[in-house]
Specification:
The protein has 343 residues and is an alpha/beta fold. It is 40% helix and 17% strand. The protein has helices spanning 11-22, 39-48, 62-72, 86-91, 93-114, 147-165, 199-207, 235-249, 268-279, 303-309, 317-330, and strands spanning 2-6, 26-31, 53-56, 76-79, 118-124, 170-176, 178-180, 214-217, 229-230, 232-234, 254-260, 266-267, 285-288. Bound molecules: nicotinamide-adenine-dinucleotide and UDP-4-deoxy-4-formamido-beta-L-arabinopyranose (WQD).
Length: 343
């Protein structure tokens, strides 16, 4: 298939490109690199062993996007491009709605012009909000607590209305839980700008000496060891879910939603211990207050993805930790030449 990939230079997009290329798909990437380096695409080309086209463009530029889409004539689009920092979303709500909701609308217009009616969308477990029951299934009430979460929910609603209105179109919404880890090659991985806001990238920078110690944000949650529990998913498994979703989009119509996780929850302390095992030494941590808006426990029911998409996660916790350390130790400054803000 011919796949237009927005945000393809990002963390999840780059890993998905590798899987798409390995299966013989033709891809075209659109990314404005607001949160990624163009070097990523060179590394993906190297891993894939063949070229693909890429465009530096903003998804909100409907005219530019429409021209790219008309020329490439995609069979389907995978829409990763978006802003994703939960804290920042509260400070810059207009930017977040503009990119995450406006960008999705702009993309749908561009797809219309190119006669493309299939889209896979990156949504998030954060659309569920405080759990009414666990594990979350796709019918769990939706009550996001952040601006970021609300932009994702709105984009989901836009896609559902779009798919309902135009016969034969398909929108596959994937609600990712907590993606971690990196490609086994150690050539691509997660490379956050500035101080990492997420657990595993922060821990990785503690191991490589850029940060002094992990701050465990709360040890008084109602969980077995008091620290927050999440459903971490290896990014390569997540990438493979997009391949399965493309196959599904080719044979279905309307909007469908799938949780993408492992179904297994791990606490912050368990993640810390697993990463220490991968690194081969103890990494310092301190207990700090809870982070505002954090939920005690999040875990996915992934039976729908297994049943309908024929997809399930293959990689366990040690693979997640080892692949992250492999990436971090080979690229201590990420895609940059050197770390700009050592601890
Ligand atoms: P990322 O920031 O690494 O990748 C997003 C990519 O989109 C970046 O390359 C960025 O430069 C690009 N981009 C941003 N705004 C753009 C615009 N206006 N025009 C063109 N390109 C633009 O993030 P990621 O972790 O790879 O996440 C990909 C998607 O998955 C996002 O939509 C995110 O909200 C969603 N998601 C991520 C997580 C997670 O924990 N990483 C969890 C759930 C959902
Ligand atoms: C995991 C656990 C923290 C950092 C966020 C977004 C979500 C999704 C994924 C995009 C929690 C604890 C963290 C630290 C810590 N992104 N923690 N010390 O909060 O589940 O989800 O990323 O869609 O929308 O909210 O992930 O990695 O930030 O936190 O103790 O320095 O680690 O309290 O229990 P989270 P996270």
């Amino acid at each position: 298939m011919r796949i237009l990939v927005t945000g393809g230079a990002g963390y999840i997009g780059s890993h998905t490109l590798v899987e798409l290329m390995a299966r013989g798909h033709e891809v075209s990437v659109v990314d404005n690199h607001v949160n990624s380096s163009p070097v990523v695409l060179e590394r993906v080309r190297e891993l894939a062993g063949r070229p693909f086209e890429s465009h530096v463009a903003d998804v909100r530029d409907t005219g530019g996007l429409a021209a790219i889409a008309r020329a490439f004539a995609p069979d389907a689009v995978i829409h990763f491009a978006g802003l994703k920092a939960v804290g920042e979303s509260g400070e810059r709500p207009v930017d977040y709605y503009d990119v995450n909701v406006g960008g999705t609308l702009s993309l749908l217009r561009a797809m219309e012009g190119a006669g493309c009616g299939r889209i896979i969308f990156s949504s998030s477990a954060t659309v569920y909000g405080e759990p009414v029951y666990l594990p979350y299934d796709e019918d769990h009430p939706l009550a996001p607590v952040s601006v970021y979460g609300r932009t994702k929910l709105m984009a989901e609603q836009v896609l559902a209305d779009w798919a309902r209105a135009a016969p034969g179109t398909a929108a596959i919404v994937l609600r990712y839980f907590n993606p971690v880890g990196a490609h086994a090659s150690g050539r691509i991985g997660e490379d956050p700008d500035g101080v990492p806001q997420n657990l595993m990238p922060y821990l990785a920078q503690v191991a490589s000496g850029r940060r002094a110690a992990l701050r465990i944000l709360g040890d008084d949650y109602p969980t077995p060891d008091g620290t927050g529990v999440r459903d971490y998913i290896h990014v390569v498994d997540l990438a493979r879910a997009h391949v399965a979703a493309l196959d599904r989009a080719a044979v279905t119509a309307g909007a469908e939603v799938y949780n993408i996780g492992t179904g297994q929850g791990y606490s912050v302390k368990e993640m810390h211990a697993a990463f220490c095992r991968a690194v081969g030494r103890d990494l310092p941590f301190e207990i700090a207050p809870r982070r505002a808006g954090d939920i005690a426990e999040m875990r996915a029911d992934c039976t729908r993805a297994a049943r309908v998409l024929g997809w399930q996660a293959r990689h366990g916790l040690s693979d997640m930790a080892q692949s992250l350390w492999n990436w971090q130790s080979r690229n201590p400054a990420g895609y940059r030449d050197r770390a700009e803000d050592p601890a």
